[in-house]
Structure formats: structure tokens, C-alpha cells
Write a structure and sequence with these properties.
Strand order of the largest sheet of chain A: 1-2
Distance between the termini of chain B: 18 Å
Radius of gyration of chain A: 31 Å
Distance between the termini of chain A: 48 Å
Shape of chain A: globular
Order of helices and strands of chain A: HEEHHHEEEEEHHHHHHHEHHHHH
Order of helices and strands of chain B: HHH
Strand content of chain B: under 5%
Number of strands of chain A: 8
Largest sheet of chain A: 2 strands, antiparallel
CATH superfamily of chain B: F1F0 ATP synthase subunit C
Oligomer: heterodimer
Number of domains of chain B: 1
Number of helices of chain B: 3
Largest sheet of chain B: none
CATH class of chain B: Mainly Alpha
Radius of gyration of chain B: 18 Å
Structural class of chain A: mainly alpha
Chain lengths: 469, 78
């Protein structure tokens, strides 16, 4: 408030551009893993007994934001008609609310405006807040570091996927090193000297042909693998882990770590006598290696690393969009029944004219098509939002990866796309609701509406006209 | 080798799936073109026209988005 920013704000844009260049060279961006279902948080994170995913986290943030917004509006709302609201943000909200109310009034008409507008605005604000989350820096890029390994289904062996090496940034924070995609020892063997030299010049740890600084890491991982496999009931692997237990201190650490996973693993590591017993015990409770129980020290170059973002916009998860679509379609049926009563069903099962009219059969078919259309709406709602926002967030981080110094135009594009998709979702809900309240006897209803117009003031009758236009 | 063939197949499939976006693009163009002409002739109805235009655009876009979802599924899920 105190500073006069006139004419100085443009330097902010320049500073941001320079910051973009600086970041491009100091912390180059990494293309994240692109995955359609929400990424699961590490074990131990639960929400009301649900498996925590980063898209669920995003919806929790949306709830909190909506709660705060409600409190803010309550706080800023003028107490009486003489008070003028002065807060800029409150005025903005009021303007948006007013504009949208008029917009919906145009579509829905007076009678059901309360129900329809409340649905409209709720859906709008939920979708808007979750769409816009992809614009926030850190979303999709800051998260849990995890070893990017999987377990092959048939053999139960550990397989490494494409990941990166990590660089410590201090204070327990790590970042992926985009200059060094992780290379397996097998692949390193096929490298030429030049390639290896290039990797060394880039400061990489893997793919250089030089053994990784200590053998401990590899052994540790091997032993751990063996221990976990022993838990899974593979006796041969258990025997292997016992051999390695005799050789190095490092394996002790591994066994200690494994001990957290269950008695059986410890037994397998410590003495031969118990190994069979332990293996048998292991067989009982788990057949396969559980990836989540594997623990790697952060920064371990023996495995590739990737990031599970803390937050990913909720609308990039089919669960959220499908839930919203179901709410919208079910609410549409509810308002239809409330307006028309049981005769709402004749929209779908229209047997009234089957025998009285020569074209009665067509009415039946049309009704059934309407029924199918109602289900198709769920899918079209869900996929429209999912497709737009998911594609948008992919666009954002691919562009941030390709042109790290100037991705803003796409952020501006996504800003509008997010708003338009929120409007479209909410608007379609409002329109379908309005359609549901209009029964089959269209002529009859229109006549009733005409009568109604006489009583309304001029402006309102205009609205009535536009509804029928 | 097999993996390379798989990747190539995925890329080709995703590209082919996106052909569906063609129809969406044409549809949106027609809808907006028609709406803008109508608005130019009769500016009083801009509000109504805009509403209907956005609706029509959303429906036309939905088809393209289905194609997009299919290609995303081919790329990242299968």
C-alpha cells in the first residue's frame, strides 16, 4: 500500500525472466513420470483409512480453501445495507457471484434458481480451485523421493525403471539430477569409452565404468533384496543372504532394516537353522515382494530415483471427476422428480402414446435413448474435465521442461482453460437440470409461462424470453 | 527390441487416436463462426448466443477430448 508501484511492476516481469534463466542453469527441470491414476503416498500415510494419493491431498486442500473462503466472506460481508464493503478481494468475489447468478438466472429461470445456482456455484468453485492448482509452483514437482523400482510379476525379481541420480541440496532435501539419467551396470558395460567419459564429465555416479565408490551399497541392496525375498518364501534367496551376512558389516545394517519388516527376515539373516522355518512363515503371510517395504537410503546410486509429487490437481484423477459427474447427474434426476413427480419417469419410459398414436413406438425408442443419454452424460462430464485438466498439466510440465525460462504463456493458457472448464461443467449441470424440470407437455408449460410473464417486471420477462429463445 | 516395437506401437496408436481431434476442431470453428456472425448481425442477443455457443463448443470439444483421453491411456496406462 505504502509503496508507489506505478511503472515499477514491469521490472517484476524482467526479474522473473532472469530468475527463469538462473533456475534453468542451476536447478534444471526434470520431466516427471506421467501417470494417469493418482500417485500413492508412501506407506504410513492414510486418510480416514483411505490410501492417500496426491490427488486426494489436492482435494483436501480444496476443502480447506473453500472453508477459508467462506470464513473470509462471512468476515468481510457488510453487516447492514449502509456499510460499503471495502476489501478488494471481497468485491471481486461479489462481482463474480453476481455475474454468475445473472448468468444462471438466464438459463434456469426463477423457480428453481436456488437449487440450481447452489449446485452450479458449488461445482464451479470446487472444479476451479482444483484446476488452478496446477498453476502453483511446486505442485507436480516437489514431492517424496523414492526409488523407482518395481517387481516383476512372474519371477518376483526387482526391476529398475527409468529414473535419475539424485543430488543432495542439504537439510534432507534432494533433487533429481537431469544431467544423469540412471544407468544400470549391465547397460554401462555396453557403453563406449567416450560415452563413459561424457558421463564422468557430467558428474554422474552411474554409467561411468568406475565402480561406485563403495561396494557396500550394492551388497546392501543385494542382501536386502535377498532378505525381502526370504520373507516372500524363496528359500534359495534366504541362503544367499546368510552367505553375505558372513562377509560384510553392511549386510548387518540391511538385516537390521529388514528387521522392521518382520521377525522372519531377521531369522533368515542370522542363522541357518531358522531359515527354513522363517521361509515357511513368510510364505504364509505374503507371496510376493512388497515394494513399499523395500527401503533404500536416499541418494543411493544403486537404484534409479523419481519423485512422487505431494500434490497433483484433483481434477487429473478420474475418481474426482467421476464423483462430481455422478453428483451432477443424480442431482439432475432429483430436481426432475421434485418438479414433475413420478411423471418425470415418462421422459424415459414413454408408453402413453404407444397405442393411441401411429408413431407411438418412436416415442418409446426416444425415451430409451434419453435414458442411455443420461448415463452417457456421466461419462462425458467425467472425461471432459479429466481430459482437459490432465492434458493441461502434462502440457505445463512438458513445456517447463522444454523451455524452462519461458513457460508462462502456457500458464496463462491453462489459467483460462481451467476457468472455462469449471464454467462449462457447472453450466452443463445447470442446463441439464433446467431441462429435467421441463416435462413432456411442452405446449402446456409454455402457456403457463406466458401467464406468468404478465406478473413479472419488465426485466424478468426479458429473461423468460431468452430462456425460450 | 520387443520393447522398442511396443513403444513405437504406442506412439503410432496415440497419434492415430488423435485424428479424432480433427472433427472437434472443425465443429468448434463452425460453431464459433456462426455465433460471431449472428452476434454481429444482432448484438442484442450476444448473451444468449454466447451461452449457447460455449455449450456447443463444449460438446464439440468433448469428442476431441475423448480422443485425447484414449491416446493418453494408450501412452501412459497400457
Amino acid at each position: 500500500m505504502g509503496i508507489n508501484w506505478n511503472g515499477k511492476r514491469r521490472y517484476i516481469a524482467l526479474l522473473l525472466l532472469i530468475a527463469g534463466f538462473v533456475i534453468m542453469f542451476t536447478v534444471p527441470p526434470v520431466l516427471p513420470v506421467i501417470q494417469l491414476p493418482g500417485e500413492v503416498y508412501p506407506a504410513g500415510w492414510n486418510f480416514l483409512g483411505l490410501q492417500m494419493t496426491n490427488t486426494l491431498m489436492s482435494s483436501i486442500i480444496v476443502w480447506i480453501l473453500i472453508g477459508l473462503l467462506a470464513l473470509y466472506i462471512r468476515w468481510r460481508m457488510p453487516k447492514n445495507s449502509h456499510e460499503v464493503p471495502r476489501a478488494g478481494f471481497y468485491n471481486l468475489l461479489e462481482m463474480a457471484f453476481d455475474g454468475l447468478y445473472g448468468f444462471v438466472l438466464n438459463i434456469a429461470g426463477e423457480k428453481w434458481i436456488k437449487f440450481i445456482f447452489s449446485m452450479f456455484f458449488t461445482i464451479f468453485i470446487v472444479v476451479l480451485l482444483s484446476n488452478w492448482q496446477s498453476l502453483v509452483p511446486g505442485v507436480d514437482s516437489i514431492g517424496f523421493l523414492h526409488a523407482y523400482v518395481g517387481v516383476e510379476e512372474e519371477s518376483g525379481e526387482l526391476i529398475e525403471k527409468d529414473g535419475y541420480e539424485v543430488v543432495a541440496m542439504g537439510a534432507g532435501v534432494w533433487r533429481l539430477n537431469p544431467a544423469c539419467p540412471w544407468v544400470s551396470p549391465l547397460e554401462t558395460a555396453t557403453y563406449t569409452e567416450e560415452q563413459k567419459q561424457a558421463r564422468i564429465n557430467a558428474g554422474c555416479m552411474t554409467g561411468t565404468g568406475i565402480p561406485i565408490e563403495t561396494e557396500e551399497h550394492v551388497e546392501e541392496v543385494e542382501a536386502e533384496l535377498a532378505a525381502v525375498e526370504a520373507e516372500g518364501g524363496v528359500e534359495v534367496a534366504a541362503a544367499e543372504s546368510i552367505e553375505s551376512a558372513a562377509t560384510a558389516d553392511a549386510t548387518e545394517a540391511a538385516v537390521l532394516e529388514a528387521s522392521a519388516e518382520g521377525e522372519s527376515a531377521v531369522a533368515a539373516g542370522e542363522s541357518t537353522d531358522h531359515s527354513e522355518e522363517a521361509a515357511a512363515e513368510g510364505e504364509e503371510h505374503s507371496e510376493e515382494v512388497d515394494i513399499h517395504n523395500l527401503h533404500f537410503e536416499p541418494g543411493d546410486p544403486a537404484v534409479p530415483w523419481q519423485i512422487t509429487p505431494f500434490v497433483r490437481p484433483a481434477s487429473t484423477d478420474l475418481n474426482m471427476t467421476l464423483a462430481l459427474a455422478l453428483v451432477a447427474v443424480v442431482a439432475t434426476q432429483i430436481i426432475g422428480f421434485r418438479e414433475l413427480g413420478p411423471s418425470y419417469l415418462t421422459k424415459f419410459f414413454n408408453f402413453r402414446t404407444l397405442f393411441s398414436s401411429p408413431l407411438g413406438g418412436i416415442d418409446v425408442a426416444v425415451g430409451l435413448l434419453e435414458l442411455i443419454g443420461e448415463f452417457a452424460r456421466i461419462l462425458s462430464f467425467a472425461f471432459r474435465l479429466l481430459g482437459n485438466v490432465f492434458a493441461g498439466s502434462v502440457l505445463l510440465f512438458v513445456m517447463s521442461y522444454l523451455i524452462p525460462f519461458l513457460p508462462w504463456p502456457f500458464f496463462i493458457l491453462e489459467f483460462f482453460v481451467g476457468a472455462i472448464q469449471a464454467i462449462v461443467f457447472a453450466l452443463l449441470t445447470a442446463i441439464f437440470m433446467n431441462l429435467a424440470t421441463q416435462g413432456h407437455g411442452a405446449e402446456h408449460h409454455e402457456a403457463a409461462d406466458e401467464d406468468h410473464h404478465g406478473e413479472l417486471p419488465a426485466e424478468a420477462s426479458n429473461i423468460g424470453e431468452t430462456v425460450h429463445a | 527390441m520387443e520393447e522398442a516395437v511396443l513403444t513405437a506401437g504406442k506412439a503410432i496408436g496415440a497419434g492415430l487416436a488423435m485424428i479424432g481431434a480433427l472433427g472437434g476442431g472443425v465443429g468448434i470453428g463452425l460453431a464459433v463462426g456462426g455465433a460471431v456472425q449472428a452476434m454481429a448481425r444482432n448484438p442484442d442477443f450476444t448473451g444468449t448466443l454466447q451461452t449457447n455457443m460455449i455449450l456447443g463448443v463444449a460438446f464439440a470439444e468433448a469428442v476431441a477430448i475423448y480422443a485425447l483421453v484414449v491416446s493418453l491411456i494408450i501412452l501412459f496406462v497400457i
